[in-house]
């Protein structure tokens, strides 16, 4: 097998593990390879710090979520500051799970009269003690690696809301849409976008043009991208706000 083919297989395995399908037999069946091959590949990913080996398989390394929180912290803060400047007192907001959206949530605590609908555990933690915010938490299944509630119940609940603004996070953003580690997360992002009068995708420069996962939220409605990138590849968004402009 060529090195390119193996790299592709490693990326597929990493995506499957991120989606919660990290059993060696499950991975072997999904990729059409032997259990021994899966074990060797998991060893490579573990050595790289991308997964943690478990009995019978692997899970996403715990440090990956912490890495996401600190990666390009300055850019994420600039994006959050820019997004927060768009919020008005009394707005109804849908705030997606994610590290950049959590940075936005931290800036909403003193905005009076907000209603915030979210599936993000980090956002709930940041806003739980804010008496001036009506906080609505979407139910569902907790996806531990992203600290997000997902699933049909979350989708059903968000469809009962009409929001002034929707703020979506992104693991990657390409011309296909927002890259998502699971189909449930892709479906929930689409449902969120459908309920907003204005829709914003918060994505730092490292996310632009990236498709790290096999599932996608096309976000059919026009949205505005808020990013710290100086150059944005064509076709990613209908409108672009550069965070530096709001710094």
Strand content: 15-25%
Question: Whole-number radius of gyration?
Answer: 18 Å
Q: Tell me roughly what share of residues is in helical segments.
A: 25-40%
CATH class of the largest domain: Alpha Beta
* Span between termini: 49 Å
Shape assignment: globular
Secondary structure class reads: alpha/beta
Largest sheet: 7 strands, parallel
Q: Return residue spans where pLDDT drops below 50 for at least 5 consecutive residues.
A: none
Number of strands: 14
CATH architecture of the largest domain: 3-Layer(aba) Sandwich
Alpha plus pi helix count: 9
Quickly count the domains: 2
Mean pLDDT over all positions: 87
In order across it, which strands form the biggest sheet?
A: 5-4-3-8-11-13-14
- Which fold does the CATH topology of the largest domain refer to? Rossmann fold
The topology string of helices and strands comes to HHHEEHHEHEHEEEHEEEHEEEE
């Amino acid at each position: 097998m060529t090195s390119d083919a193996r790299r592709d297989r490693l990326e597929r395995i990493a995506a499957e593990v991120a989606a919660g399908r990290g059993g060696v037999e499950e991975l072997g069946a999904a990729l059409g390879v032997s259990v021994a091959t899966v074990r060797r590949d998991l060893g490579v990913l573990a050595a790289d710090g991308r997964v943690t080996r478990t009995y019978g398989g692997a899970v996403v390394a715990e440090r990956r979520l912490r890495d996401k929180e600190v990666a390009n912290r300055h850019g994420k803060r600039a994006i959050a500051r820019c997004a927060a400047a768009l919020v008005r007192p009394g707005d109804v907001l849908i705030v997606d799970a994610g590290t950049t959206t959590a940075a936005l949530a931290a800036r909403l605590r003193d905005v009076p009269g907000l209603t915030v609908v979210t599936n993000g555990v980090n956002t709930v933690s940041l806003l739980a003690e804010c008496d001036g915010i009506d906080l609505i938490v979407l139910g569902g299944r907790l996806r531990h690696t992203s600290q997000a509630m997902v699933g049909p119940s979350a989708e059903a609940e968000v469809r009962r809301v009409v929001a002034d603004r929707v703020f979506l996070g992104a693991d990657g953003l390409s011309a296909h849409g927002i890259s998502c580690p699971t189909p449930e997360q892709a479906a929930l992002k689409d449902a969120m976008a459908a309920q907003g009068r204005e829709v914003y995708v918060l994505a730092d420069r490292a996310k632009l043009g990236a498709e790290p996962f096999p599932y996608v939220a096309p976000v059919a409605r026009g949205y505005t991208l808020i990013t710290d990138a100086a150059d944005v590849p064509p076709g990613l968004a209908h409108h672009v706000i550069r965070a530096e402009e709001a710094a």
